[in-house]
Amino acid sequence: MSKSHKSITKAVEDSRNDELEPKCLNGSQEAFAITNRGEVIPCCWLDTSVQKKEVDYGMLALASHIDDYDTIEEIFLQDEWVEFRNNLKQGKGFGICHLVCKKRDSPQHKRMTVLSNGKEKWTKET
Ligand code: SF4
Description:
The chain has helices at 3-15, 23-26, 55-62, 72-76, 79-89, 95-100; strands spanning 33-34, 40-41, 111-116, 119-125.
């Protein structure tokens, strides 16, 4: 196991019981992503080797291959997605969720600045 893999694994373990503020539910970031393997997943933060070891996440990814459906909305109706969203609403996410979307006083993970004609138009931090 690499040094970075170990430190992410430890950070996820340490955050497991931390209170959640899910960015995918409060609109501060997109509510899904598509991997280069064709899986629709709840967000790009989850596409890590650490997260892939969690059985519930693996089941969601298995049920979410874009080639198996006509629309992305169909994927969101699968039991694994319904359970994931219900769990999030009750404060329970995947391991990485409790690290990335831990309730914090200030933004920590992402800053997006939009420029127009070379001048800052707006900045969003999550
Ligand atoms: S890490 Fe989890 S809770 Fe946060 S945006 Fe991604 S899926 Fe949602």
